[in-house]
Amino acid sequence: MLFNIDWLKDYVDIDISSEELAARLTMIGHEVDELKHENGFDILDIDMTPNRGDCSSHIGLARDIAVMLGKEIKIPDTSFKEDKEKSSDYLTVEIDNPEMVHRFAAKVILDAKIGPTPDWMKKRLESIGLRSVCNIVDITNYVMFETGQPLHGYDLDLLAGKKLIGRAAKKGEKVTTLDSIERKLDTEDIVIADGEKGVGLGGVMGGENTELSNSTKKIAVEGAWFNPVNIRRTSKKLGLSTDASYRMERTLDINASVFALERCCNLISEIAGGRILKEMIDIYPNKHDEKIISFRPERARKLIGIEIPDEKISEILESLGGTVTGAGQYRWKVQVPTFRNDLEKEVDLVEEIARFYGYNNITPALPAFEQGAKDLSPGRKIETKTQDYMVTAGLQQLTNFSFCSVAQNILFGIAESESVKVLNPIAEEMDYLRGSLLPSMLKTAALNYNYGMTDIGLFETGVRFKKVQGQELPDEKMMLGIVLSGNQNKLHWSDKPRKFDFYSLSGIVQNMPVLRNRKDFKIVAAQKSFYEEGISAEIKAGNKTVGHLGKISSEAASAFDIEFPVFAAEIELTTLAGIGPDAFNFQSISRFQSVYRDIALIMDENILYEDLISAVKSLNILPLRVIKIFDLFKGKKIPEGKKSIALRLEFLDSEKNFTGSEINELVDTIVDKLKKEFSVELQAS
Amino acid sequence: MLSNLVKIKETFEKELAAVKDGAALESLRIKYLGRKSGMMNDVMQKIREVPPEQKSQYGSEANKLKGYITSKIDEAEQGLGGAQKKSADFFDVTLPGIPPVRGGYHPLELTRRMIEGIFQRLGYTIVEGPEAETDWHNFEALNFPKHHPARDMQDTFFLENDLVLRTHTSPVQIRTMEKTKPPVRIICPGRTFRCDWDITHTPNFYQVEGLMVDAGVSFADLKGTIDHFCRELFSPDTVTRFRPSYFPFVEPGAEVDIRCVKCGGKGCRVCKQTGWLEIMGAGMVHVNVLENVGYDSEIYTGFAFGMGIDRIAMLKFGIDDTRLHYENNLRYLEQFRGVC
């Protein structure tokens, strides 16, 4: 909001430089974004906080400056020569809905000369961004920026029945505003009407049908207090925010309308002449009570944490326009001026005291420290542990937006009915909340690939959203996403690169701290629509599916213009946190030597490694410490439809070293079991 | 038996000294370390013949010898430089080393953890909450009435059924206080959303909200806490400035600035020539908020503060465009691998 410092000086004696004024205003809560020097004026651009509607005028801001500088406020001249005739002889004012219109005042001016505006006023208005229209309109605007009270002038001859009525709009009622747009209204909107029709959208914008013109002879000027809730609703609904609605919705001083009309008449008589009819028409059915706040200076001292004497406190309150009674007692009564609508409670006064005492004069203290912090929530703990692991595993963390398109959700198995819609999206393809991390991660992969960074090992932890019937909030789960493509290790002069493949991915997943110690953790083949046929699996913890992994299908990849192989996984960290980790127990270590035996087995190629290992484990051979594949071979000497798997067996006993025949016996048992279950053949070495 | 091991070692050393080329070295390796007929294999097999009381010593000596032979042969191979010639070869120590496989954290995660760490050391518990919120938790309970202009301060994304994407992490305050009695000392980091997108705004971003409620907490306590935080996060000589501001859920309300980290207060592009950088909003928890969650505001007072993690990251690392955080260009992200 713009303020002209020259103009402010009409109301308060500012004896400091504009620069210092700007700096000090910032320190009492009126943050100056910029101090401009334009056309001989110093202009303050202030970021006005929404609680301070009273400061959206030059007098309003001058009041705070006066308190800050310890000066008196100077109220402008509101005197004028009154005509013998009465305003009420020419105009009737009525309030039809006192809930919406608390006060409605008006004045009638005859034979004023509508014409150009004097230079001084034009320049001041232009300095705060207003275009000059004609003297009468400019005066009403000037008074609004001076006092904060919006005023509106009507061509009285165009008012049917010589009436102004403040009422609720009728459903479907139409009013064409000054910007020549026809506004369709409902019963929550406030209309100013004459005897027949709507002539203005109360508190927002005047009507075109009664606009002042060069031929206007009789002028009615009106100032009112409208219910801020209605004004805001209307302004939001119509997308029409005006200088008037801005001030109205921040709650006006209930007494400002009469004061502003008098000031307006003063300026009209001075600038446009004419006869100003006597007596104020002032309809005020919904009387506002005087506001008296119960206040304890001790409470102020405690809450702020300062030692400030009573006298100083009451001095600040009085300088703000308050009236203090009961000083010296524990509890005071403070009557606050009508222009300070933001002051309602004791704490509002406490803030005023802190503000003028100066926040920077408060000595910092550290609160007593009694109890320690609790550990991270299970969810955040798993999230951070997983991040740590992924970084050690060589992957780069991403942070993508939570938004996506519904098509992206559907592509990754989240139906439209499960997708959470954003009603006011910021961009196309960002009109839903992501049900999976993978679409945005694939976009990131494509972006980097196109920049020439083709070795991509990425992970992200973030929330995915799903709509759940009968639940107030959408279901939010913390997910881990992994996307791999290109080389696993960066090319080094002494080394050959290894490409990321399914096993690099499953290896990362299998060794995740939250998974590797789980006895019930398994990767099982399961086809997902977005993974390539066969190279697709689910991650199980017991009978719960906690994620999936695979190679992104070329159809899914093409949605992101990806033409290179990409492997991806997504895991529900929230679910894993909910299950909790398996208890970990240390096992004593043997002091004897391990004996290793290698066996190569030929078998049908569709026998799953997982099944092979389970069969061996079912034998429950305690000394068998590790069984692990070290080679897999097809073709050449191996018959069609078969494969050769080489296994290394490690035997270790906690009590003794083995003899060769003992080991041979154990190996035979294992091979026999596999022969029986899977018809494997021992390959001659 | 043990003396046998000593003999093997002596012989090996002699033979190794005589090796001139890679082929000779390779046959030496097979002689001693060959899987089937290597001498060490034989030594290992012989453990069965060792009397029981010597078994353990023999085993360990045998292992030691095998390790020795292996390392000596490897060493000799290095010396031959793989090019199979033996000489005091030139060795270039400046060739790039083989980097260990290591990824990196996102700068926002790094910043979040720095902030969390400082408050954890002050006894604050880290609490989280939902990102899609009710109007009550995001606004109403925080003293933003339905038709109040204060709602314009935060450009809100709306969802169906009167839900919003939370515009700040302050609703976690409400959720925590609704189910906990004072004293409360929490910080609430998390993702927040506002309908805004330019060089200093992205439609989602991260915030950390802090809250302390107890009997007798004052604005002076707030100042002390924030001062401590800023000095820990930036540097011990960081200067803060508190100025009055308005957030509906606190009163007295404040905006906190730190002296510009770039120019030290002289005025520069980063601080827009003011010498100060705005870093958070703060204030005493509004009595209406305390009452909304059923706290007795006569007994309990508290302070709250909130800052943008993205903004702090920009200041810490000198980043000039916040959109970089969400573009996820590896050229950007990989720069942060050295941050500790």
How is this structure best described in words?
The complex is a heterodimer of chains A (685) and B (340). By secondary structure, chain A is an alpha+beta fold. Chain A has five domains: 2-69, Phenylalanyl-tRNA Synthetase, Chain B, domain 1 (2-Layer Sandwich), CATH 3.30.56.10; 82-283, Phenylalanyl-trna Synthetase, Chain B, domain 3 (Phenylalanyl-tRNA Synthetase, Chain B, domain 3); 291-360, Phenylalanyl-tRNA Synthetase, Chain B, domain 1, CATH 3.30.56; 378-579, Bira Bifunctional Protein, Domain 2 (BirA Bifunctional Protein, domain 2, 2-Layer Sandwich); 595-682, Alpha-Beta Plaits (2-Layer Sandwich), CATH 3.30.70.380. Chain A has 21 helices and 32 strands. In chain A, strands 20-23-24-28-27-26-25 form a seven-stranded mixed beta sheet. In chain A, strands 4, 6, 7, 14, 15 and 16 form a six-stranded mixed beta sheet that branches. Chain A has a five-stranded mixed beta sheet with strand order 5-8-11-12-13. The longest helix of chain A has 19 residues, at 660-678. Helix content of chain B is 38%, strand content 19%. Chain B has two domains: 2-79; 107-338, BirA Bifunctional Protein, domain 2 (2-Layer Sandwich), CATH 3.30.930.10. Chain B contains twelve helices and nine strands. In chain B, helix 2 (22-33) packs antiparallel against helix 4 (52-79). Chain B has helices spanning 2-18, 22-33, 39-45, 52-79, 107-121, 135-138, 171-179, 219-233, 287-292, 309-317, 324-327, 330-333, and strands at residues 125-126, 132-134, 163-165, 184-193, 204-215, 240-244, 250-259, 276-285, 300-308. In chain B, the strands form two sheets. Chain B has a seven-stranded mixed beta sheet, with helices on both faces. A two-stranded antiparallel ribbon of chain B has the order 2-3. Chain B is of the alpha+beta class. The interface between A and B is large, with 97 and 92 residues.
